[in-house]
Amino acid sequence: MNRERGTTDPAQGDFPAGGDDAERDPAARARQLCLRLLTLAPRTRAQLAEALRKRGIPAEAADEVLGRFEDVGLIDDAAFARAWVESRHHSRGLAGRALSAELKQRGVAAEEIRAAIDEQLGPDAEAAAARELVDRRLTATQGLPAEQRIRRLAGLLARKGYPAGLAFRVIREALEAEGDVVALDEDPLFGEPDIDA
């Protein structure tokens, strides 16, 4: 902690206690805060706008600074989305649907999300990632009843954002390759629900 400035939290501002121009000028404060936040990690325009709003920076000053940062390339939501998709897909095995939700939460525009996902993930890449996740977990489910194995593997893929059709196809292929033949289409767990009126 820097005792002279008060706090080391970049979102809190770390502004000097004296009455210099940066403290009085909202645009200077906004620039300072944005630079601090961008030094720590890439951010979207919406994330920076929210941080500025929380610090009481007037909307006009925030828009001016954020616009300038976009002009010079310090803020690039499309590049952020591409990097996010690549990183989260490869490190956590997330599907396009989960990645889309994460980016939307961070304020990335829908067209930039779609472009990043389409560029980084094709149907084949998503299916390959699902197979890899199932293959890693398959041995941990050996010895369990087939229905329980299917539920666990399907739950894993659902939490990662994979569509049900793809999930069950990948699970069926993995179980068949292992020699554990299960007819998912005929299984009452995955058919139409029993509705007794």
Describe the model.
- By secondary structure, the chain is an all-alpha fold.
- The chain has three domains: 10-71, no CATH class; 77-120; 123-186.
- It contains ten helices and no strands.
- It has helices at 21-24, 26-40, 45-54, 59-71, 77-92, 96-105, 110-120, 123-138, 146-159, 164-178.
- Helix 2 (26-40) crosses helix 4 (59-71), helix 3 packs antiparallel against helix 4 (59-71) and helix 5 (77-92) crosses helix 7 (110-120).
- The chain is elongated, with a radius of gyration of 24 Å.
- Mean pLDDT is 83; it is low at 1-8, 10-19 and 185-197.
Q: Average the pLDDT over all residues and give the rounded result.
A: 83
**Count of runs of 4 or more consecutive helical residues:** 10
Overall, the morphology is elongated
As a percent range, the share of helical residues equals 55-70%
Tally of domains: 3
Summing up helix and strand content along with how strands pair, one would put the structural category as: mainly alpha
Low-pLDDT runs of 5+ residues are: 1-8, 10-19, 185-197
- β-strand number: 0
- Strand content of the residues, in percent? under 5%
**What's the Cα radius of gyration?**
24 Å
Largest beta-sheet details: none
What is the H/E order? HHHHHHHHHH
Kindly, what is the distance between the CA atoms of the first and last residues, rounded to a whole number of angstroms? Answer: 66 Å
